[in-house]
Design brief:
Length: about 170
């Protein structure tokens, strides 16, 4: 999306045009995503929502592999995630509260009790969108063993959470 929130036209070849110049900044729904250093096989833009001083920002990332300027359909997906970020994070959290009670996740009795607390045992949400229409929210902080060391991942199909995984080393 351009600064005015309108998707650019596709003159540059979009994601199929790997030789096209990559924009340094994408302005999407009021959030600036800046091109960040990444491996040569992909392009990544990242932006954080404004937060009070000293707090960690919630982050949105766009990953394109192989590297290319994003196409309008991908920009629309990122726009949907950015503009509904808080609601999608809440939906991911509620999904975790329900799904993580299932036996296969192996939570301890104490961890299960923490799912009922007003403050969830996870935080610092980070959304990542890929060009194949897939995307996820990673809660980078987790007080659950299954989320050690890198957090809890919630995968979405559109705006519906469909899977949750931990990043434990087991």
């Amino acid at each position: 999306m351009s600064t005015d929130g309108v998707p650019p036209d596709n003159r540059g070849g979009g994601e199929s045009g790997a030789d096209a110049e990559l924009p340094a900044t994408l302005h999407i729904a009021g959030l600036a995503l800046n091109l960040v250093e990444s491996p040569p096989a992909l392009a990544c833009w990242s932006g954080g929502f404004p937060v009070p001083a000293g707090a960690d920002p919630a982050v949105v990332n766009l990953v394109i592999e192989p590297p290319a300027p994003p196409q309008p359909a991908t920009l629309r997906r990122v726009h949907d995630v950015v503009s509904r970020f808080d609601a999608l994070v809440a939906r991911a959290g509620e999904y975790c509260r329900v799904r993580l009670r299932e036996e296969g996740y192996g939570l301890t009795a104490g961890e299960l009790d923490r799912l009922d607390l007003p403050e969830p045992p996870w935080g610092l949400p980070e959304a990542t969108v890929w060009t194949d229409r897939s995307w996820m929210i990673r809660f980078a902080e987790s007080g659950l063993g299954m989320g050690d060391p890198y957090g809890i991942l919630v995968t979405f199909d559109g705006t519906r959470p469909v899977d949750v995984q931990g990043t434990d080393d087991e």
